[in-house]
Amino acid sequence: MRESQNISDVVAAGATWTGLIFCPKSPRYVTEMPDISADVQRVGVFVDADIQEIIITAMDYRLDILQLHGNESPAMIRELRSSVARKVRQDIKIIKAISIGNADDIEVFRRYEDSVDLFLFDTRCETSGGSGKQFDWTILNAYDGNKPFLLSGGIGPDDASRIMQVHHPMMLGIDINSKFETAPAYKDAEAVRRFISELADLQKKASKINIRNQA
Question: Which of 17, 25, 77, 170 is the 20 to 30 Å CA partner of 44?
Answer without folding.
Answer: 170
